[in-house]
Amino acid sequence: MSFLGISGMQYSGEMFAGARIIVAEDSNVFTSMISKRLKELFDINVEICRNFEDLQFSYDKSSDPITLAISNINLPGAENGEALEYLVDLSIPTIVFTGTFHESMRDKLMAKDIVDYILKDNIFAVDLLAESICRFLTNHRHHVLIVDDSATARALLSSRLKRYNFRVSVADSGGKALEILKANRDIGLMITDYNMPDIDGFELTRRIRANIGSHELRIIGVSSSSNRLLSARFLKAGGNDFMLRPFIDEEFYCRVNQNLDTLLQIQSMRKERAVA
User: Fold this and answer.
1) Which terminus of the chain, N or C, has fewer Cβ atoms within 10 Å?
2) CA terminus-to-terminus distance, the chain
3) What is the largest CA-CA distance in the chain?
4) pLDDT tens digits, residue range 10-45?
5) Secondary structure letter of residue 199 according to DSSP
6) Are 258 and 243 in contact (CB under 8 A)?
7) Residue 102 carries which DSSP code?
8) What's the rounded Cα separation, in Å, for the pair 17 and 40?
9) What is the pLDDT of residues 225-271, one digit of tens each?
10) Keywords in UniProt for this one (predicted)?
């Protein structure tokens, strides 16, 4: 295992030569940097689209599905964001790579259900982009369980996780969650609400920890309560993290990534010790 990017993501070194990646960007500097970095890291040959016409042609020329698109907000021929609208309308997973950013634009981007956005405002921009791409291409290996008695909350969290390419299961009660965990030992992360009618999040976590440790399953608690003591109680019950609703997409995704990175690091160290 090696580390990728600046967040400490653990990367197995696998190649993704079969992934079809399109880069919609008119800057020669950035297209060159992105192409070189993705080739050396993942053996990916990206398709460069320097204007809106190139992007449309790239989509039309092949029946092979586009795995992921990296797109600037504005391209020649699409100066008002039409390229991004085009990709979203085609349901192509897209990472926005842009030098233009402010809060209102952030809100518009996230409303489009993009995968991520990376700012071209620092020397690590291309490395951050590579990390985001790697996460998207490998997130399918992670199975996440959402536990919430609210159908709306389950649908919201599920859609967020599926946007990032995770495999997702859902449970509408603590009892159902225990059944799913028993039948799916590959689940590495559980996100559970605190307030549920049959078994609350604290009790569910306690029961799980009687049989499954943090080296096998990470647990994030969530709640809409304003009681700040809930986080302490949840962590003492065996949880690994806690978030108060409402939370923004970026924070949610970072917390998920941090917990799964920690899980992989723990499992890697345990394997190394077993071999030694």
Assistant:
1) C
2) 16
3) 59
4) 777 788 988 999 999 999 999 999 999 999 999 999
5) S
6) no
7) -
8) 11
9) 888 889 999 999 999 999 999 988 999 999 999 999 999 989 888 88
10) Phosphoprotein, Transcription, Transcription regulation
DSSP string over 28-81: HHHHHHHHHHHHHHH---PEEE-SHHHHHHHHHT--SPP-EEEE-S-BTTBTTS
If you compute the radius of gyration of the chain from its CA atoms, what whole number of angstroms results? 20
- Span 117-156, pLDDT tens digits: 999 988 889 999 999 999 999 999 999 999 999 999 999 9
Other C-beta atoms closer than 10 Å to the C-beta of 50 total 17
pTM: 0.92
Instruction: Look at the chain and count its residues.
Output: 276
- The beta-strand segments (E) located in 80-131 are 94-98, 116-119
If one counts every other C-beta atom within 10 angstroms of the C-beta of residue 143, the result is 17
- Take residue 82 and report the two structure tokens written for it: 């039409």
DSSP-based three-state secondary structure for 96 = strand
pLDDT at 8 over 70: no
Residue with tokens 């996100």: 191
Residue 207 and residue 71: Cα distance in Å, rounded? Answer: 45
